[in-house]
């Protein structure tokens, strides 16, 4: 399973193309617009949840940390949204198809306390990073650079690791509860992701590196497996048996 | 009343001093720490309210605008907070004395719909700008630069003017309701500001340019008058008789 940590190489030389060259293919263009749309709404929704969850903070310093994460998500949203405008797409229209899935994810996973909120922030940030990295290798040079730039800006979640470890040390039973919670988060994320994959053909085809009509569902499954494995390792490192 | 629009000149040559020189006076130092603390918590609380009020947005584009304002408030918070750390003060401790007043202000003025939220964002942003400008002239060169830098970054609220004008055009009765609301916002803001002034001697003394024991309450009143007048003019320009 060692090699499954690495995103698969893209089968085409897409990475050497500029956006203008690559977007001449309307299916590719549609896929990237979908991708930027789902990422943009993902960041906007994450902003809202983090801003909301910051209310659960036990003190001002912790609140400021979560608010800093929220603000970083907004910066990501802003970069993605400006990119959509730059390629003559309406950001709102690009985001619309993904609103229901992402809102549903957040509705299903509203944290009931501060620690659950921290875990969610950490898990969300990490899964997003993994997904950005997976997808960057399948994109033209310009889109890839944007996605990696946005990704590069994360890392705000390091403070979560400290806080969660301290909480488990203080009360080991907390670990069991949070491990369940982390599993539930991943389950809901996968379930909504599968819904998006089923709905959006062009996006899904691109994600698996396909160019023909239809796509390889097994390859989507393998991408989800890699992300799940990375999640499991992170949770173990955090002291949570996932 | 013409001249009352301009902040009064500071009576001392404080503006020509660096922070190190000025902060040798412990009362001045305490006043600036208070000031940075109240501004920082003001920005943090504004972030939270804007993020919350963004939920009332009728569409994604409007939501993104309010979220952009929230994110700007966070950047201000961050700059003020880093400044406090830089001068060896704990940002949390500096903010604590102002939490109750600012939270109470926001509790008393939770918008009941999107337009009320917009007006509040606009009024809040504008009053904050006025206050920053008033206070900048009373500060040492380094603190003044910081305050003006933070101020310079605003201006996100221009989109509010359009939206509110359009709403009043569509239904003139909206104007009456929003005018009342704007008046209430200003009333609550003044009432909480007076509470802060009464509680924090060093800060109040600095605000009125005093250096002795005690301060001139009438001069604080004049500062509040200037800010209220500017507010009234803005509301009139918006089509709201304040």
TrEMBL record, chains A, B:
InterPro entries, per database record: Ferritin-like, Ferritin-like_SF, Ferritin_actino
Domain of life: Bacteria
Domain annotation Ferritin-like: ranges: 26-210
A Pfam family of this chain: MiaE_2
Protein name in UniProt: Ferritin-like domain-containing protein
